[in-house]
Amino acid sequence: MSGKKDVIPHTVNPDLLRERRAASFRVYEFACWWHGGAEKLRFKRDLEQEIFKDLTDHNTLLHYKSHEEICEMAVKQSIELAKKLRAMQARSNPGGNEIWPKLYSSSMVWGAVPAGHPFAVQYAMMVDAIKKQGTDEQWERFGKRVENFEICGTYAQTELGHGTFLRGLETRADYDRTTDEFVLNSPTLSAYKWWPGGLGHCSNYCLLVAQLYIDDTPKGVQMFIVQLRDEETHLPLPGIDIGEIGHKMGFYGANNGFLGLKNVRIPRTNMLMRNAKVLPNGTFVKSPASVLTYFTMVMMRCVIVQNSSTLLAVAATIATRYSFVRRQSPINPNEPEPQIIDHVTQQLKVFPEIAISIAYQLAAKSLWSLYYETYADIERGDYTRLPELHNLSCALKALCAADSNVGAERLRLACGGHGYLTSANLHRIVAAAAAACTYEGENTVLLLQVGRFLIKSWSAAIAGKPLTPTASYLAGPAQGKAFGPWTGDWANIVATLQYAAANKVRLAYENLAQRLKQGQSEGEAANNTGIELTQAAELHGRSFVAATFLAHVTGSEAAERSAALNRVLQRLLELYLVHTTLRHLSDILQCISFSDVELRSLQTRLETALKQLRPDAVPIVDGFDFPDRLLSSTLGSYDGNVYERMFDLAKQSPLNQQSVPKSFHTVLKPFLKSNL
Amino acid sequence: MSGKKDVIPHTVNPDLLRERRAASFRVYEFACWWHGGAEKLRFKRDLEQEIFKDLTDHNTLLHYKSHEEICEMAVKQSIELAKKLRAMQARSNPGGNEIWPKLYSSSMVWGAVPAGHPFAVQYAMMVDAIKKQGTDEQWERFGKRVENFEICGTYAQTELGHGTFLRGLETRADYDRTTDEFVLNSPTLSAYKWWPGGLGHCSNYCLLVAQLYIDDTPKGVQMFIVQLRDEETHLPLPGIDIGEIGHKMGFYGANNGFLGLKNVRIPRTNMLMRNAKVLPNGTFVKSPASVLTYFTMVMMRCVIVQNSSTLLAVAATIATRYSFVRRQSPINPNEPEPQIIDHVTQQLKVFPEIAISIAYQLAAKSLWSLYYETYADIERGDYTRLPELHNLSCALKALCAADSNVGAERLRLACGGHGYLTSANLHRIVAAAAAACTYEGENTVLLLQVGRFLIKSWSAAIAGKPLTPTASYLAGPAQGKAFGPWTGDWANIVATLQYAAANKVRLAYENLAQRLKQGQSEGEAANNTGIELTQAAELHGRSFVAATFLAHVTGSEAAERSAALNRVLQRLLELYLVHTTLRHLSDILQCISFSDVELRSLQTRLETALKQLRPDAVPIVDGFDFPDRLLSSTLGSYDGNVYERMFDLAKQSPLNQQSVPKSFHTVLKPFLKSNL
Lengths: 676, 676
Fold this sequence. Notes:
The structure is a homodimer.
Chain A: H1 14-21, H2 27-35, H3 38-52, H4 67-92, H5 120-133, H6 136-147, E1 153-156, E2 172-176, E3 181-185, E4 193-194, E5 205-214, E6 217-227, E7 240-244, E8 257-261, E9 264-267, E10 277-278, E11 284-285, H7 291-325, H8 344-379, H9 386-414, H10 426-435, H11 443-462, H12 475-478, H13 490-517, H14 522-528, H15 530-554, H16 563-583, H17 585-589, H18 596-613, H19 617-624, H20 628-631, H21 642-651, H22 662-674
Parallel strand pairs in A: 1-5, 2-5
Antiparallel strand pairs in A: 2-3, 3-9, 4-8, 5-6, 7-8, 10-11
Helix pairs in contact in A: 2-3, 2-19, 5-6, 5-7, 7-8, 7-9, 7-10, 7-19, 8-9, 8-15, 8-16, 8-18, 9-10, 9-11, 9-15, 11-13, 11-15, 13-14, 13-15, 13-16, 15-16, 16-18
């Protein structure tokens, strides 16, 4: 009954071996390309080696624990991880930050904190916000202590009754001139802070986002440094009602918390005052530009695109390997059961998700470039590119989160019943991807913003005014230029998606205009056009992803890659483009007509693309180079010993440590006997 | 810090009150219609009252427990439930079976066994299988003991390496003539039974599905009565390796198990021998018709359609109520935040799912009718309708499971971040709906079967041969009849969906024929046409659902309903039909052309349908009549006291029972201090 490890062979599943031997390209070259070069790949591998070397228990064993045990475990694991990263930073480059704290909440370390990370928000947002919004004095006095992990904290913005709409926040900070303090209050239950990661029991400070009032007059949302718990005893300070918000479908150990405030007083100097200010006499000095606050949120969205596409790639790795190991249902009667990947319907479930994860990862790369360029612009006082970056980050965050959620679930289902076991780890990936659909700006709200940006762009295009680069494809259609012939080559497919996007923008624009003409207010008209606005935003975003993928594969970088690798990337691109075309076919057919032959040829191209990827699928996901510890999956480990691993983990269930459970004697037996 | 209940008001949220007062129809009439009449509604309510009256803890508190605690709890709750149902049966109708055991695994009792039900398979499949496959003697000797719950058991079919493809099972039953016994073995690890509900620790017997061998010659799959554990001690018998398969993403307490057999001997008379037989001399007598085995699986699929659509209705109830309570993001700047349902994009997330759940529930009703008619036919020896029933149950099972899974997740996302909390209970509904996509026949495998049925039907249609009723719409298109004008009325929409389905069947048929002509085997050709076969099956199934919905709303039953109720049902039908048309628009546009005006009018109809349902949405979900105990949701309770309930349950988290967790002293504080 014990979980002896020797049930797992030390050999690799022969089906996987065969696939790997037959690869048409060098996996190492793919991995180098994927991770940005040989040096970065080695750095990643060394880091993983170091972080994971002493971790022995399987990550999915956490599901046997109680919520409380999981939360305690998460604290322990997060602190262990912090220690390791700091030691590595000190060894390899003292004083630098490329390992600590930079990697503390990166995907590279996911395998070390499977239940989530109660200190992620401290490093992902709180430190950054104090640096950018606080004065130098505040940074010295407070920011450095947070960065140095002398105190622990979080960023407390959302409330029980208020999420994406920031201006709706209810928490109040009233300035009291007589004591030079702010008085903090949660006037209602719905004003309770709710969700901040680590707030429950892992923060003794927070950055509180609250409505500033001076003489009962609102001055807008500001940030305040608030001590929550005693540094020695960790007991909540007077007026602080704090705790965790309870169990969630994922991130079990992230310790998301609630916070109610009752007449909590903090010195005036605890408001972050790099931009807006309150003077001792109660004078409010407005922020010269609220742009930088805004910019932290943009950064978070870039992170989400990158992480969500990584989650999808993780799920694709697991489902791909399993699909080559699992055998079922003969294709020809009386033949042996084939690897399930030989069923074309299985290929359709798995391969497009590999291509989609790559497409978004490349889109994230482009988004990061734009981010750094725009950041450099802003430092020079030039804000012109900001709306473009903002809207692109909104669109990509919403689409990538949604596609990763749906895609990871599709991959989980592609593993059949076994995908339902938590030891497959797919449900945890789905749950992580799902979360990104609603945090950091709910997806639909973001798409509506993008939709409004597109309406403005269309309006400019009609007037012949200049357009931002990502919206430049609207110019032709807005000027009434018809779509040229459908040729189906890659550039033509991208143009098709853009044309369909432009058509959706046109429809939304016309319907909006008509509603305004009917006397609806701008808000009402926009709301009533909401469905088309989000559809336009979706097509706009996917066109961008397609264009970026095309540029990465066929652009100048291609010369640096081997012909073999380029061929594989071209096949992935072909699959992505054809699949995306078919996905949006109804949108396309509404503005471009296809003959029956052309439609059939698309279907043939899809089937061909799947077939061509079949021999390289395992090597491709190998090229993502995810270590087993990160995959944490019985179905997806490198060696493909699927059934042995499932069996081994099942045997480790606490229930299997004794032959007869207590409830047999106390409940079941008495009942059975009573029926004799 | 305690979970005092008095945080929850005894009043109903005013926004919900207002909606209910303004209903355009009588909720009670809807509820009567939905539950099949006033008497059935009362029966249901009385039953719920009785079952739930002494249950006080909130169901979602189970998520704070460890896996072992949850499993023990599930046993206890299942036995309590059995006792209650039997007592009620004895009180109201001794000797009957309409309450016990019939309702033991029905949706009415879900609220009493939130972690799943380790004895569900015993009553849903094992009893039925012994009755239908066993001899009268076997029923007397064994079946009655199972039915009477003197022993506990399950139905052990799937194996670690083998699921949907039954003939691939590896477990062996070798007949030993010398002792008149079968010798049972799991020859490999992949032959281990894996998944049967209750097998882990809640069965002392099982029905084992194994390959019968006589003199090493395979005789096909048969069923065997096998004792697994001692009735007194519950210890596994010699040669039995048994346990649970570990934690899953849902059905935490269903105790799914594994089973390995090593030279386990059972008497020859333990093979179920109503149909196939093994004589003492080793002669094998074939079953006269394997049709009845087949029929139990058909029944299970009917159950799944019904349950999956119920799950979707549960999720829709929660998301609808929450959408009327939650307020966010002004539509016009400077106005107060509206109920989020006033955002059109929110209506699009929620209302179609209400309509879809109703559509499938009505389809399930039609499916059950066909089931009972076919059953009666079979008892008269007439099997002609069986292929029709089989294929319809496959199509509806696959589609309803998939749509419920996707729909419930969409509804969960529609509740924003709060839908991520387990106290919302939406994730558990999604997890339950997701399971149905892979059990009792994996969805894609089922759709491929339906696809092949459609190919045969198309072939018959071309030849002018008669078609089964559900495939009769293929006749016209197969004979080259073009689609008449698009008028957009309801019957025309159903015809449109059918025509699009027929077109997909045609394409699949032609591509299949071409592949055969190219020399591919039938198996290969079918596999290569797999994508189109599943698409055809999908459209075929949805056409049926649409046709059924139309018939239920506009058929003769309408005269028995009030005009007000009929108007609401018509609006739901309108939304369903328009939404389904838009969903399959690319399939439709491939064979029927629409003008720009017609396309725009579809979009307008969608928006109008949403708007018209807005005032009745809360009353409609009230009409489903789900008690709070079944919903088990902080977001969806009848009184709409959302925030108070969320807060109350958060406070009940074990972590919140003390201000400072252990890990602060052991882990966090030492670390923070080391950084000073």
